[in-house]
Amino acid sequence: MKAAVWYGKKDIRIEEVAEKPVKDNQVKVRVAWAGICGSDLHEYEEGPVFVPVEKEDALTGEKAPITMGHEFAGVVEEVGANVTKYKVGDRVVINPTLTYGNKPEDLDVYDGFSFIGLHGDGGFAKYVNVPESNVYALPETLTLQDGALVEPTAVAVQAVKEGNMKFGDTVAIYGAGPIGLLTVIAAKAAGASKIFVMDLSETRLAKAKELGATHIINSGQQNPVEAIKAVVPDGVDVSFEVAGVAPTFKQAIDSTKARGTMVIVSIFARPIEWHPLQLTNTGVKITSAIAYTPTTFQQTIDLLGTGQLKPQGIVTSVIQLDDIVPKGFEALTTDKSQAKILVELSGEK
Fold this sequence. Notes:
Distance between the termini: 21 Å
Radius of gyration: 20 Å
Helix content: 25-40%
Order of helices and strands: EEEHEEEEHEEEHHEHEHEHEHEHEHEHE
Structural class: alpha/beta
Number of helices: 11
């Protein structure tokens, strides 16, 4: 079967790979749609970040080269001998997070995690085998293309939960890439009264406005902290750092009110220099989010299913697997008008 395989930095190849036999606890999924994530882009531009290259991953038992893709949905093609919840033909979405499962779910991911599609073979292929416990039923109200948006939306939902955002709170979101835009959608659904979004791209800022931002600020043209405090003098209740660079990290803290919360959502590609006195002098609390709990993943599916979360507007392109490098990874690198690019595999609805 054809797959997009990561070999190294700037080295993703479309090639034929063998199908793997289904283990007793696994479900084989015929992939319909898969999204390109910011984490995938980090692996393409700067990797390896997560991909295991020197030895096999502890949870997947795999190492590079690996088939990428961790935002995907599809149809059950085959089930292992011990699978009880799913049958051939079921429409499903995959939670790609693998953990040891030894601790409560809010702590489990911090005990060590791996990702289907980053630490082991994923969804940029015709078929992928995944543990039954990582498979979730897709509501009839959602298409399989919608299903490919569940995973990144769950990241944003978890970030909003981590910030303890309350109905009526004001928020600032630094970075209007795909996760930043989804954070706009999640914050709006959670009842944010004012949503400030900062970015350098006018196109992305316009998209943020379209998706629910109440204020957009080009941080290359005006000081975002001053612009926010002109509207909310004490600063916002919660800020989200979704750009992954030192300036926005510091600005997110400065634009948050005393005793407010700043949530780190982005994956920083490299260390930054930062002075902790910035916290001491402001009382701002910093927290972070990595992925999501199983509960949050299911809640995200439910919220999409009822229409309370509507992430479909972040999709800017649909491409074929053969074009994933030039029209996917390279496009995301060079074209800031792109947000979420979906890859069509079977293309089923």
